[in-house]
Amino acid sequence: MPSRAMPVIQQKQKKVSQEFHSSQHVQQISSRKSVSKSVKKEQVEATEAMAEPAYKVPAFRQRQPEGMQEYQRMAAHFGRDLSSLQQELHRMKVATHEQVENIEITREVKEKMSMRKEFQAETPKAPDFLVGLRSHTVWEKSPVKLFCTVSGSPTPIVKWFKNADPIDPLSAPGKYKIESKYGVHSLIISRCSVADSAVYSAVATNTEGKIKSKATVCVRRPAGAAESAHLPGLVPLLSGIHRSKLEVTFLDRFGVTFGTEGQSVTLVANLLVVPDLPNLPPDAEWYRDDTLLKPSRWAEMSICGGAAKLTLPHLNKDDEGLYTLRIWTKDGTTEHSAYLFVKDATPSVAGAPGAPMDVTVSDANKDYILVSWKPPNTTNEPVITGYFVDRRKSGTQDWVQCNSAPVKVCKLPVHGLTEGASYHFRVRAVNSAGISLPSRMSTGVTAADVESDVEVIKIEGKYDIVIRQEELQGVYVTLADPPTEVHATEINHTYVVLSWKPPSLRGRAPLTYLIEKSVGDSNFWQRVNTGVQIRSPRYPIYDLEDKTQYRFRVTAVNKYGPSEPSEPSELIQKVDPHASIPNIGVPSAPGQVIASRNTKTSAFVQWDPPKHLNNLMGYYVDCCVVGSKTWMPCNHRPYKLTRFVVHGLIPGETYTFRAQAVNAYGLSDESQESAPLFIDAALTAPSAPYGISLLSCDGSSMTLAWKRPKNTGGTKITAYYLDKREAGHLNWKEASQSPATIRVHKVENLTAGLFYEFKVQAGNLAGVGLASEPSKAFACEAWTTPEPGPAYDISFWEVRDSSLLLQWRAPMYNGASPVTGYFVEMAKKGSSDFVTVNAEPESHRYLKVTGLETGALYVFKVRAVNAAGKGKASEVSDAVCVKALAGTKEIEYGVDEETGDVFLSFEASEISEHSKFTWSKSYKEIAESNRVTASVAGRRSKLTFVNPEKEDLGIYSVAVSDANGVSASHTISEEELNKMLELSYNIRHPIVPLKTELSYEVLEKGHVRFWLQAQKMSSAVSYRFIVNDKEVTSGEGHKISHDVSSGVIQMTIEHFTKANEGTYTLQIHDGKAKNQSSLVLVGDVFKAALKEAEFQRKEHIRKQGPHFSEYLTFHVDDDCTVMLVCKLANVKKETTFSWFKDDEEIVLDVAPNPMSGSCALPIPLFSRKDQGIYKAVLSDDRGKDTSVYDISGQVFEDIINAIAHIAGSSASELMLQCTPEGIRLQCYMKYYTEEMKTSWFHKESKIASSEKMRIGGTSEMAWMQICEPTDREKGHYTIEINDGKASHTRAFDLSGQAYNDAYAEFQRLKAAAFAEKNRGRVVGGLPDVVTIMEYKTLSLTCTVWGDPQPEVTWFKNEQEVVSDAHNKITFESGKFSSLTINSVTVEDSGKYSINVRNKYGGEFVEITVSVYKQGEEIPEPKLGQMSRSAAAPKSPAPPSKPQTPAPSMKPATPTPPPSVKSPTPTPPPSVKAPTPAPKSPTPPRSAKSPTPPRFMRSPTPTKK
Questions:
Q1: Residue 49 has pLDDT above 70, yes or no
Q2: By CB neighbour count within 10 A (0-12 exposed, 13-18 middle, 19+ buried), where does 1059 fall?
Q3: Where are the beta strands (DSSP E) in 1251-1295?
Q4: Of the candidates 921, 962, 1019, 1111, which lies 20 to 30 Å from 1029 by C-alpha distance?
Q5: What is the DSSP string of 1463-1475?
Q6: What is d(CA 847, CA 266) in angstroms, rounded to the nearest whole number?
Q7: CA 131, CA 219: separation in Å to the nearest integer?
Q8: Hey, is 259 helix, strand or coil?
Q9: Burial status of residue 1006 (CB atoms within 10 A of its CB: 0-12, 13-18, 19 or more)
Q10: How deeply is 203 buried, as exposed, middle or buried, from its count of CB atoms within 10 A (0-12, 13-18, 19+)?
Q11: 1091 φ, ψ to 5°?
């Protein structure tokens, strides 16, 4: 209960506070005795152009009347278990007490105020603000109340101002309300709009002086609210009243969107429609700025399924702007707006400008069409020098450039068009780097006049009346009147558009016009439009000289002739676009640019308009990160207002801004840069603190703690205001005379035994925030328990994906003994099952908790422990999500490369303007220390060790305030410290860093180079070589040099001998750095170097004459020919080349040609016989060189393997061939030799060559023959060819029908072979031709053989010879047969033959006998001719050399007479005899008679 002796001023202020709390002010703040701290003077403007909410503030709590609210709280605490009678009695007592107290206070206030007025009247005093104005940030459509308390004598008069303009309540009825009671003056602004954002001031004046108090009111739009319409030209007005019975609510809204030219963007707003009728969606309208959008090729709209969509399929900078979605609802409309930014597409040429935009056409007539556009923004690109305009006739795809030279103004009259044709236009910008991409094409326009002297009057029916103006005047003329009012409608640096008024009398004929010009006031007129017919009363004139004035006149021409010239125009002159002529040229630069905070990614920028607007199109805004020289465009389409919200900024960066004005002549100069602005959310009053807890109580005082507001308002909290009241009471009192600065406060002067409630408000530069919820009732009773009180202020740091660091403060009440440790308990959010994290008490006030679930929410409690046991648990902490912040980085431990200082460095992922880095060791803040120094640069903080030692080992952590818990830690171990100290020593005591130590290499000519490479060295480097303790300088025999760019230092010894054995050292000095490197070259190492040097010296000498650049080696061609090859160098025509094998020269068919640069020796059909030592000799008069190649051992194996690789790859599948001896499997390949590693397998067993299984091959194939096959030889056969790296296999399955067929063929061939062996035949003795003299005896004798003994028959001219006295036939011993012709005569000449035959076959041998008369010359021997062929067919026989099977031919064997039968057995009918080559009927002596088949008869003729 308040004391009756309360000071008057406190009672008065309490009454005023109560009155103020009863109003609908959004922040409801109690007035206090202490004067609020001064508020920053910050000009905050509205951001109507952007619809993104500036920041997020919790929704304001809607309060009930205070009495009822307090009564409910009181009843909830004390009267839940009392009867209704007790509640009513208590209420009556409280109400009566309050009424008596109010009456007493009112009386005392009136008495004291009258006394004060008398006192003030007696003592003059200048005005003074006891309570000054306080800044406010409120939501749109909310009221705001500014108040101040003024003292002074006489009573001051207070006037209110908005931005230095006096406020008149009558000017806006209902908007402003001004009150003044008891020295408290207030200004109430009802239903604030963004336009009410301003600086308000109260000016108090009396006769003693004047004083002013200022405050800033910032009106913000809540998240998702529609854009208001106070900014002209940005938000569309209602197009009409649309009735709707639907209730529509926005659920998800589209935000600020960024796109790039050429991309596609869709803006989506999700809606809740009640009732939701699929066939009756709500009416929706889309606007860009103040333009209603219609469906087109550039914009696609839909509203269905609870979503309204706008798709821009092909973005262009024309699409940039504020997009508004208006939905018609039951109560009117609901709207949402957001800005779309469209960046330039990547130019085709680096540095080329962006594309122009907003291409429009106007003034279309027969002679020209005026095309205009807006220039693009240029930041880092070269200045735009002009534009090219292209046209395209509708229905075609070809673009034609309209102007041959770039036009410098953003408009161009395009003439030379086809009358009546429709055209589209586009524009390209030009600068020194290149030409931009084309703009979006304009809408189609027709080149035709809309003006005419013909008037059409429509009457009822199907007829129209056409009347000319001259007919209405009743005047008939032939020549037209002269035009009038000749003047220039547009003047710029490129052209002048001349316009005139057509004559009223035109002679009833179409008109054309002639334009003439004269310089200055001269009367010398010159025709302008030579060869061009002008039909319209406007025409652009080019090619006018600079700084020259002209007069123009116009003549009308019809079919009857020209009219009189018009009156000359005024003097007209082209202008410089940068000249200061009103409405001509580029605008002047915008004025002062002011930037202020908006959100964490945006800023509010405003500027003063330029002094000379010159038909201003809008503005471009650029931004630049402080410290960078690169400017970035903020908007890409001219913006019409002088305020703009820049989006897409990086949080925590500092930017400056500038603006440029834009018109048709281009861009103005840049404005001055704004002051640097740190990007963060705008300042607001903080939200309410929460979690008030009792830490200790001694019976007359209580120590309280509370938690920081979740939203600090973007700046540091400077004060906490604590109020108290007894439980059950309604009135709150200040708990202390001054605000608290920390979140722990001791409340004194309490009454033991009572219960107290508390509430807290936080204050910052923007004002005092909302009050917390009242705490629970705490009993004022002294704590006497032996256990400690609760810990408090639990905070979370170093939150990662599976761990976090917990910190807390020690309890204010220790109990009967000191606190010895702490237990931490945790549980998942929503669970009451707390588990203890640490098994043993933690002595520190921090604990790292690991093994947590990523993304889960946890809560924690802490209990202090002393000798008496566990104390009270702390308040449950806020829930923490176990997940690392995006962009989280860890502490870096390193050494400065310049100074050698050991440091810890940390870069924060995000900071605010007021963020501070706090470094700690073992989680105790490092306040002042002579061991470390801390520094901050932007987002990075560095902790540098002065003289690191073991004392500095431990855990170091860093925390960033106002940055969502950004923190990290690092443990410095002794090993890590020693490593850093070593690195630090090397930096502070520098050495020349070496890439390589001193080493050597043997060069050409046998020179030896000693060299070393440093990582870097300066041009001032010095060095010296020391060999065996003696310095060596550059001179004869030694060359010493270095190269700074590569860091190489070298010494070359030209003649390396045994005397150079020893130790080599190179010493280097480069500034303060130095180093040395040594090389010991003795013993075997030196001998190897000396041997290599001598070899290189000999090589050098060898290469002075013809020599081998590449010695002999081999390669195998694709046909398996082995080639020995070598490459030659330094040869000439006289150089000879020879091949040798085992010292015997090899002579090739084609002599080697040394001039070709290479020689080759082919070795076909390579085999073991080709082993040996091959030598190539190259020589001429300059010398001789030899290359030796020993083909044996491993070299031979390598060649065979190379052949095997090619042969194996070319191997055919296994083929079956039958022979009289057995069944043969053969594999054809490019080349085969027995030296190849070839293996045959039967099933899984390897086959060795034997009498049963013979293995062999030819140069074309490998074969394996199964002699006398049986069923045991059936199965799977495989040949494997190994080339040393891989195996090539081919297989054949000799079983089943394949085996049966092969076995049958083997039996047939075997029988044929037996018959061939035992058939009858002539072994020898008969000549081919016999010449004999007449009357001599001729004896033809031969040896025959056959088993069984053959039969022998002689023939003469195919007639059998019968033994008689003249022709005697004998056959002795079954071997010798003879035909003796006694006393031969000429008639005995002819062809004789013998047929030897048994049952297996026979042979037919012919002899030609020639008888000449005595005395004649011996005739030339001639073979006898037979009338028909007598060749017997040959039976098939195995070839002597296996060959690839060829198609067989049928035999052409003559059929013998049927009377003769042959005893030869008939072969199987399926076997066909091969066809012999055509021969003479008389076979040669060596011809063999094959065994004929059974169906063939012997050629022996029948006996006569």
A1: no
A2: exposed
A3: 1253-1257, 1261-1267, 1275-1282, 1287-1294
A4: 1019
A5: -PPPPPTT--PPP
A6: 49
A7: 23
A8: strand
A9: buried
A10: middle
A11: -65, -45
The label of the residue with tokens 């206030």 reads 109
Residue 1463: left if φ>0, alpha if ψ -120 to 50, beta else—which one?
alpha
Would you state the pLDDT for residue 874? Answer: 93
- By C-alpha distance, which of 357, 436, 368 is closest to 402? 368
* pTM of structure: 0.48
* Burial tier of 1397 (Cβ tally within 10 Å: 0-12, 13-18, 19+): buried
Q: What are phi and psi of 196, to 5 degrees?
A: -80, -5
The pLDDT value recorded for residue 679 is 87
Cβ-proximal residues to 775 (8 Å cutoff; 6+ apart), any chain: 692, 693, 704, 757, 758, 759
The two three-digit tokens of residue 562, written as one number: 């020209």
CB–CB of 153/121 below 8 Å? yes
Identify the three-state secondary structure at position 268.
strand
Enumerate the β-bridge partners of residue 1332. 1411
Q: What is the pLDDT of residues 1268-1327, one digit of tens each?
A: 999 898 999 999 999 999 999 999 999 999 899 999 999 999 888 888 888 988 888 889
Query: What does the pLDDT look like over 247-296, one tens digit per residue?
Result: 888 888 999 999 999 999 999 999 888 887 777 888 899 999 888 999 99
DSSP single-letter state for residue 740: B
Cβ proximity of 481 and 505 under 8 Å: yes
Which stretches of 40-105 are assigned E, i.e. beta strand? none
Return the C-alpha torsion angle 1225, 1230, 1231, 1237, nearest 10.
Answer: -60
Tens of pLDDT, residue by residue over 171-182, are 777 788 888 877
Convert 561-594 into a string of H (helix), E (strand) and C (coil): EECCCCCCCCCEECCCCCCCECCECCCCCCCCEE
| 607-613 contacts at long range (C-beta below 8 A, 24 or more positions apart) | 607/642, 607/643, 607/659, 607/671, 608/642, 609/642, 609/661, 610/661, 610/668, 612/580, 612/582, 612/587, 612/588, 613/587, 613/661, 613/663
Q: Are 431 and 382 in contact (CB under 8 A)?
A: yes
Length of the chain: 1504
In sequence order, the β-bridge partners of residue 400 are 391
Q: What is the DSSP string of 467-522?
A: EEHHHHHT---SSPPPPEEEEEEEE-SS-EEEEEEPPS--TTS--EEEEEEEETT-
Per-position DSSP letters for 1175-1214, written without gaps between them? EEEEEETTEEEEEEEEESHHHHHHHHHHHHHHHHHHPPPP
Q: Residue 1340: is it exposed, middle or buried by C-beta count within 10 angstroms (0-12/13-18/19+)?
A: buried
Which value, in Å, is the radius of gyration of the alpha carbons in the chain?
59
Half-sphere exposure of 666 (CA within 13 A, CB side): 23
pLDDT at residue 474 is higher than 70? no
Distant-in-sequence, close-in-space partners of 620: CB < 8 Å, separation ≥ 6: 377, 633, 634, 635, 638, 639, 659, 660, 662, 667
Helix, coil or strand: residue 449: coil
Residue 991: the pLDDT is: 87
Q: Is 358 helix (H, G, I), strand (E, B) or coil?
A: strand
Q: Which residues contact 928 (CB under 8 A, 6 or more apart)?
A: none
Burial class (CB in 10 A: 0-12, 13-18, 19+), 744: middle
Q: How confident is the model at residue 1465 (pLDDT cuts 50, 70, 90)?
A: very low
Contact between residue 1384 and residue 1356 where contact means Cβ atoms under 8 Å apart: no
CA distance 277 to 285: 19
How distant, in Å, are the alpha carbons of 190, 279, 801 from that of 225? Answer: 18, 28, 37
What is the separation, in whole angstroms, between the first and last Cα of the chain? Answer: 174
Q: What is the full DSSP assignment across 429-440?
A: EEESS-BPPPPP
Indicate the residue type of 399: W
C-alpha to C-alpha distance for 161 and 217, rounded to whole angstroms: 12
